[in-house]
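Might I ask for a little of your time on a matter of protein folding? The record follows directly beneath this note:
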Amino acid sequence: MAFDFALDTRRDMAASFVTGAQETMQRLATRLQRELGEWFLDETAGLPWLGVNGLLGTKDTRAIDLLIRRETLGTEGVSRILKYSSLLNPTDRQYTIHMQVLLAGGEPVNLTLTEEGAKWHTA
């Protein structure tokens, strides 16, 4: 049985473990929120959110959405994206994502990702 350490709302380790759908969704949220080069064990992991050429500095939502979809589908345990929508506020540099993914076990899960963090629940 696979498991991972649970993360709290600030992405700090909590004193528990997650498995199954919760593990997959936590993994997905972590991948989408990680800044490119942030993780010292793999500096190619993450998305280029900030910086001079960062995603939050562009108005090309198609490019952002493409990277988010690729990162989502590259997440172990995610079979496919069922629904996807996003909203860019370039003035505040905020990006909100709403998606429904189908997990490998056949369970659909809704995910909302904002600058405050990620929230998910079964569909």
